[in-house]
Amino acid sequence: MLKLRSSLPDYLISIDESIPEYFFIPALQNASYPFSHSILIKPNPESNLAFMIDSGIGHTTIKRILKDFNISKTFLSHWHEDHISGNYLLQKHGSGFFCHPKDSQILQNLNQIQELYNTKGTVVEGIFKELIQSLKLVDLPQISPLIPDEFILCNNSVKLQIIHTPGHSAGHCCFYDSKHQFIFLGDIDLTGLGPWYGCLDSNLIDFEKSIQKLLQLNIVLAVSSHKGIYQGEKRISEELKKYLEVISKRDEKILNYLSPSKPTRPIDLVGKNIIYKKYGYIKDYLFIAEQIMIKQHFDRLIDLEKIIKQGENYFLAL
Ligand SMILES: [Zn+2]
User: Fold this and answer.
1) So what's the architecture of 13-246 in CATH?
2) Secondary structure class of 16 (helix, strand, coil)
3) Model pTM greater than 0.90?
4) Residue 4 contacts by C-beta under 8 Å, 6 or more apart in sequence?
5) Which residues are close to ligand 1, an ion, with C-beta < 5 A?
6) 196 Cα: distance to centroid of ligand 1 (angstroms)
7) Ligand 1 center to residue 313 CA distance, Å?
8) How far apart are the CA of 109 and the centre of ligand 1, in A?
9) What is the enclosing helix (H) or strand (E) of 64?
10) Residue 232 CA, ligand 1 centroid: distance in Å
11) Per-residue pLDDT for the chain (318 aa), expressed as one digit of tens each?
12) What is the DSSP string of 228-272?
């Protein structure tokens, strides 16, 4: 049960005095992979009933939260392993789970993960398997659907709108409180790397549209899963625009490699820093993700009539 405290437990951070019901829960290792930040929503100050968004903060923090709060509902932004590692503890605790149906079907059967990352049968399959085991991921048999544009009602003053923002994954969602102009961005994460669409259920065109959708909203406070809290309408809008521009910069880099006469395939551009600045010891995996992402740019550049495809080869359009 809740031990009433005069001050906040040290794992919770107030986001802003304008939104006293929301708390930032910082993840282990500054939310670098395989961890991600969460939000705790405490609609009634007198009660220990609370909700969470995502569960990838680290097992120790989740255990501490569950000692202090009754987390009745957990909202998942998407299925990726770095956002769901606390699900096994929340499941034991009795929390309900909510996710967009396109990602729920993956959370119900996590055996699909390696197929989606295109790592099955590759040199990194074993490393991935070990990582999944260490994160203690569990299938969630029962997940309620997050319906795009509908509202999650926490109480009279806390009303979160579900913003379906596909691209990073097919069912990725952001959570938006229009009254307080606050949003949880999930993995539209504003990192310097830029948008990531390296899974087989990712989609570059959808990702662009999702960022443009967010630019239409009034946002003065935002939380990114891997970068934390952002404040200020101008700053957040600038960060989103900068993040969006990374996509066209990648287009330009790719076009520089293409020629009207010399055939090029997506695999030929892997390892040339189109997406990643450096590859390091996880290079075998980054090459797989990079190839998926470059292929999506090729498809887009065909739509834009900047390149043409002949068989498996691509050429600059004349
Ligand atoms: Zn993700």
Assistant:
1) 4-Layer Sandwich (3.60)
2) coil
3) yes
4) none
5) 80, 187
6) 8
7) 31
8) 17
9) helix 59-68
10) 25
11) 444 545 789 999 999 999 999 999 999 999 999 999 999 998 787 788 999 999 999 999 999 999 999 999 999 999 999 999 999 999 999 999 999 999 999 999 999 999 999 999 999 999 999 999 999 999 999 999 999 999 998 877 789 999 999 999 999 999 999 999 999 999 999 999 999 999 999 999 999 999 999 999 999 999 999 999 999 999 999 999 999 999 999 999 999 999 999 999 999 999 999 999 999 989 999 999 999 999 999 999 999 999 999 999 999 998
12) EEEE-HHHHHHHHHHHHHHHHHHHHHHHHH--SSS-B-GGGGTTS
Q: Which two tokens stand for residue 194?
A: 């830029």
Rounded distance from Cα 263 to ligand 1 centre (Å): 33
Q: 32 C-alpha vs ligand 1 centroid, how far in Å?
A: 12
Strands of the 70-75 sheet, one edge to the other:
13-14, 22-25, 38-41, 49-53, 70-75, 96-99, 144-145
Residue 240 in tokens = 């989103």
Q: How far is the CA of 172 from the centre of ligand 1 (A)?
A: 8
Distance 186 CA to ligand 1 centre (A): 8
Residue 100, both tokens? 């967009």
CA of 164 to the centre of ligand 1 (A): 14
The structural domains of the chain, with segments of one domain joined by +, span 13-246, 258-316
**How far does residue 80's CA lie from ligand 1's centre (Å)?**
5
Return the number of other C-beta atoms located less than 10 Å from residue 104's C-beta: 20
Ligand 1 centroid to 35 CA: how many Å?
10
What's the gap in Å between 231 CA and the centre of ligand 1? Answer: 22
CA–CA distance, 21 with 107 (Å, rounded to integer): 28
Q: Which two tokens stand for residue 260?
A: 């009207």
Q: How far is the CA of 316 from the centre of ligand 1 (A)?
A: 32
